[in-house]
Amino acid sequence: MITKRIIPCLDVKNGRVVKGVNFEGVTDVSSPVSLAEYYSKSGADELVFYDITASVEGRSVFCDILRETASKVYIPLTVGGGINTLDDFDRVLKCGADKVSVNSGAIRNPDLIGEAAERYGSQCVVLSCDIKRVDGSFHLFAKGGRIDTGIDAIEWIRQGIGRGAGEIVVNSIDTDGVKKGFDIEMLKAVIEVSPVPVIASGGAGSAEDFVTLFKEIPTMDAGLAASIFHFGEVAIPDLKQLMHSNGINVRLR
């Protein structure tokens, strides 16, 4: 049985890890380098590094900080933010990323997904989707959750997988930072159309929320969170022990 992955997320702004609620009101947390090193040593299965303002500011991801962060971790590292071209994929991979997450860049140019998959392999291409309910439907948002594209998010994910995306990250804007649990309804809708691994993001407020996630959706591949790990509310070793005691297959140290 495949083990479930626990993935801390480093949302980076101006070289610092930050965290907000519903994608707004971000506050400073720590250095991405020190946090990444801590998580790598404490049992995280992977790390996600998002330069959260790169797309909005129309620039490339901070490569100097990324290189230093990558040098401190010994687990897979996914990097996103300002990924708009194959050159962006190439640069980030050369800085130490194992996988590249694309969001707004793929919305602007859907062909980027297939081009990147052909050059680097589908396993390297992560389609990150910021999703929010609008009039009862799941809409895809761009520019760090700031712009409603009007695109049906579930259909977008289906098409992205068809183009070659090898993994999907589902970021629920409705539950982001609220700490009342993952968006189970939305995640079930995504799982139904996805033959590739899906990572749930947004809403974790306790270790029990991860247990609920994997019990409610046994085929979910991973749970991603930020603030509960950053602020020491949940320790990854304790979380994994809880999951293990609940019959959820997880990598223990």
Low-confidence stretches: 20-28
Strand and helix order = EEEHEHHEHEHHEEEHEHEHEHH
Q: Averaged pLDDT, please?
A: 89
Number of helices: 11
Number of DSSP strand runs: 12
Shape descriptor reads globular
Structural class: alpha/beta
Distance N to C terminus:
17 Å
CATH fold-level topology: TIM Barrel
Question: What's this, in brief?
Answer:
It contains 11 helices and 12 strands. Strand 5, helix 4 and strand 6 form a beta-alpha-beta unit. About 4% of the residues have low confidence.
Structure, explained:
It is a single chain. By secondary structure, this protein is α/β, with parallel strands linked by helices. The chain has one domain (5-245): Alpha-Beta Barrel (TIM Barrel), CATH 3.20.20.70. It has helices at residues 32-41, 54-57, 63-71, 86-94, 104-108, 111-120, 153-163, 184-193, 207-216, 227-230, 236-245; strands at residues 5-13, 16-21, 24-30, 47-51, 77-80, 99-102, 125-134, 137-142, 147-152, 167-172, 198-201, 222-225. An 8-stranded parallel barrel has the order 1-4-5-6-7-10-11-12, surrounded by 6 helices. α1 runs parallel beside α3 and α9 packs across α11 (236-245). It is globular and about 45 Å long. Residues 20-28 have low confidence and may be disordered.
Feature tags:
253 residues; alpha/beta; TIM Barrel; 8-stranded parallel β-barrel; 12 strands; globular
